[in-house]
Amino acid sequence: MRHRQSGRRFDMPTGQRNHMFRILVRTVITRGGAFTTEARAKEVRRLIDKMITLGKKDTVHARRLALSLIADRDVVQTLFDEVAPRYAQREGGYTRVVKLGRRKGDAARVARLELV
Fold first, then answer.
1. Looking at residue 7, what DSSP letter applies?
2. Contact 22, 72 (CB under 8 A)
C-alpha cells in the first residue's frame, strides 16, 4: 500500500524509513503500544489508523492492502480478528500519543504510541 509522502525524512533513506514505519505499526498492533520519539509516533499514527480502518472493512482486498504494508500474515490476522472489531463503533482516532519528556542521551522528545 502506498502511503502519502510525509514532509519528515528522519535523516534516513526512504527504504529504511518505510521499514521503520512497518516495524512500529507491527509493534503497536501486536503489543498495543510502543515507545518512540514524538515525531515518529505522530507519523506512524496515521498508518495505524489506516490499517485499523482496513481491518473494519474485513474484505479480501482490505487484507491484501494491509499485507502490502505489514508483510506478516499473523499480524494481519490479529489486526482483522482482534484489534479492528474493538473499534467497530468508533469513527476514527484509534491511537493516542502520550508525551513522556526527553530522552537522557540526546534530549529527543520521547512518547508512547498506544491504541485507545
1. S
2. no
Per CATH, domain 14-115 is 3.60.15.10: no
In the chain, what are the domain boundaries? 14-115
Instruction: Give the DSSP H/E element, type plus range, for residue 24.
Output: helix 14-31
Dihedral, CA atoms, 57, 89, 96, 17, nearest 10 degrees? Answer: 0
Task: Tell me which residue of 95, 100, 116, 93 sits closest to 36, measured CA to CA.
Answer: 100
| Tens digit of each residue's pLDDT, the chain (116 residues) | 555 555 678 888 999 999 999 999 999 999 999 999 999 999 999 999 999 999 999 899 999 999 999 989 999 999 999 999 999 999 989 999 999 999 999 999 999 999 99
Q: Which of 45, 27, 30, 33 is nearest to 83 (CA)?
A: 30
The DSSP code for 11 is T
With H, G, I as helix, E, B as strand and everything else as coil, classify residue 20: helix
Give me 32's grid cell: 498495543
Residues 6+ apart with CB under 8 A from 16: none
Q: What is the pTM of this model?
A: 0.87
